[in-house]
Amino acid sequence: MLDEWLTLALVDDDDPGREREGRLPGGRYRVLGAGILELIPDTPAPGARSVVISAGIHGNETAPIELLGELLAALEAGRLHVKAPMLVILGNLPAIRAQTRFISTNLNRLFRRDLAQSGDEPERARELMRAVDGFFARHPERRLHLDMHTAIRDSRYPRFAVVPYTETQPASRWQDLAAAELQAVLLQHQHSWTFSHYSRHYHAAEAYTLELGKVRPFGANDLEALSGMRDWLAALAEGRERPAGATSELRFFAVAFELMRKSEAFRLGFAEDVANFTEFPVGTRLAEDGEAGEFVVDTAPLAVVFPNARVELNARAALLVRPCDPPASP
Ligand SMILES: [Zn+2]
Predict the structure, then answer these.
(1) Protein residues within 5 Å, CB atom, of ion ligand 1
(2) Residues spanned by CATH 3.40.630.10 within the chain?
(3) Cβ(187)–Cβ(240) under 8 Å?
(4) Which CATH architecture has domain 259-319?
(5) I want to staple 147 with a disulfide (CB 3.0 to 4.6 A). Which of 63, 132, 196, 289 is the partner?
(6) 66 noted as active-site residue
């Protein structure tokens, strides 16, 4: 059963002997691979979305996995009825078992069809891309992908969505994000090969990377702070529309610059454990690099998101963002 699927995926490799499909109240499920589960309604609700929900793309980000566990338990017990096609994914299984962000490389930069790398994480990226391709081919209506994460550091907005960049932006339903009690939205300014970008770029799906609080071990998460998110997942599984949230409650930010590490002699001008969205005034020296020189805030304050001074050379050490107006919503 479903509970067992989650447990098995978390503790052990794919067990070929266990049940590959079965019934659920309102539909059925199929195990497509280790940590890859499809839910198929007998009768989809009118207007149901085709939903990919992924968690554990970074192995130590456990709150989203607990949310998924709750959702599957509710479906199995009949407290919820499957009324929408769903693809449920646990991303980096070895990293989840080891309670670490990744084993050899960051899985969330590998979701591109021309991926050349080999190794466990690149192979897993290929497997997940195939699963998403197959799912959206079988269920092309109203595509949505929520890739759930938690952040390494504190945040002025603990729950926020990252909107991947694509040339043609599929419509975003900001009212749904607001109803799920997300607090901020960060608009990317260039392609980055994340899982949510994959669904947006190659499948024109509405897709987000959701940062849902801070990294904690299993059992130490505050799921009550994620009750809006839990309700959203339940509504998606049942193909229900929820009352629109107040988009005026959402803060929107756009990436203005990326701080890149160009040399060994690189350092940030602020403590690395600063909260995401901390704002720095004009005149602040945000970084010093042996090759690129100093980066000083010039015309208007900048806020810092995802800072990390210890990235590889020529990788991103922080995003620098500014508030912006919300893009149009349908
Ligand atoms: Zn993550």
Answers:
(1) 58, 61, 149
(2) 2-249
(3) no
(4) Beta Barrel (2.40)
(5) 196
(6) no
Calculate how far, in angstroms, residue 108's C-alpha sits from the geometric centre of ligand 1. Answer: 8
Numbered ranges of CATH 2.40.50.630 in the chain: 259-319
Neighbours of 131 (CB within 10 A): 20
Ligand 1 mean position, distance from CA 283 (Å)? 31
pLDDT tens digit at each of 330 positions of the chain: 676 777 777 776 555 556 688 999 999 999 999 999 999 999 999 989 999 999 999 999 999 999 999 999 999 999 999 999 999 999 999 999 999 999 999 999 999 999 999 999 999 999 999 999 999 999 999 999 999 999 988 999 999 999 999 988 778 999 999 999 999 999 999 999 999 999 999 999 999 999 999 999 888 888 889 999 999 999 999 999 999 999 999 999 999 999 999 999 999 999 988 999 999 999 999 999 999 999 999 999 999 999 988 888 888 899 999 999 988 765
Distance 172 CA to ligand 1 centre (A): 21
Residue 165, H or E segment: none
Question: Residue 57 Cα, ligand 1 centroid: separation in angstroms?
Answer: 6
What is the CB neighbour count within 10 angstroms for residue 217?
9
Which of 21, 70, 211, 241 is catalytic? The answer is 211
Pairing type for strands 86-90 and 36-41 reads antiparallel
Residue 184: alpha-carbon gap to chain centroid: 14
β-pairing verdict for 143-151 and 50-55: parallel
- Amino acid identity at 151: A
